[in-house]
Amino acid sequence: MEIPATLSPADELPHEPSDKPLWCENYLPQAWCPDAGIGIYFHLCHSPAQGLWEQEFVVYLPDDKFLVANGVGPAEVDNGIRTGNISFTCDKPFEQWTHRFLGGARLVSGDELRAGPLTDGAHLPVELEMRTTAIGPPFDFDNMGEQIWASGHYEQH
């Protein structure tokens, strides 16, 4: 797989925080199984101003049901990111990652989510491991110029 010259394996892992106002770094792996009607969404966001990582985990289930969990906390970074109930491991840069959730999640309806902020309630134990393998090279937006939302960005399917 040919990787754009503007990217290196180090770009797969968290970067040193910038001193630019509102700088943050995001990881957004997602999956969808049309046969089962189940989707998985992870989101990690590092905001150096807080020194913490925001964590979101959602499993989209049939019949407008969802398993949801979120949190905010410090992270350990080496060949991936471990924070709260979520860990991401870079198995092979630009080719394969393993994403894990181990903890409690709320089972809620879409009506509950659409009604406003979710109130606290009972949690179910959830253990999920998802390995993602790239089907093509990353697309690097490279120089973002004067974009308000990013100075760098790449995506990969």
Model description:
The chain has 157 residues and is mostly beta strands. It is built from one helix and twelve strands; from the N terminus they run βββββββββαβββ. A hairpin with a 2-residue loop joins β6 and β7.
In short, what is this structure?
The protein has one helix at residues 110-114, and strands at 25-27, 30-33, 38-47, 52-61, 65-73, 76-77, 80-83, 86-92, 96-109, 124-133, 139-140, 154-155. By secondary structure, the chain is mainly β. Strand 3 and strand 4 (52-61) form a beta hairpin.
* SS-derived structural category: mainly beta
Rg for CA atoms: 17 Å
Order of helices and strands: EEEEEEEEEHEEE
Overall geometry: globular
Pick out the low-confidence regions. Answer: none
Structure summary, number of beta strands: 12
The percentage helix is under 10%
Number of helices: 1
Portion in strands:
over 45%
Give the mean pLDDT.
91
Question: What's the quaternary structure here?
Answer: single chain
- Our measurement of the CA-to-CA distance between the termini, rounded to an integer number of angstroms, reads 13 Å
Major beta sheet summary: 10 strands, antiparallel
From the structure above, extract its key features.
12 strands; mainly beta; 1 helix
Helix-strand layout with pairing:
Layout: E1 25-27, E2 30-33, E3 38-47, E4 52-61, E5 65-73, E6 76-77, E7 80-83, E8 86-92, E9 96-109, H1 110-114, E10 124-133, E11 139-140, E12 154-155
Antiparallel strand pairs: 1-3, 2-3, 3-4, 4-5, 5-9, 6-7, 7-8, 8-9, 9-10, 11-12
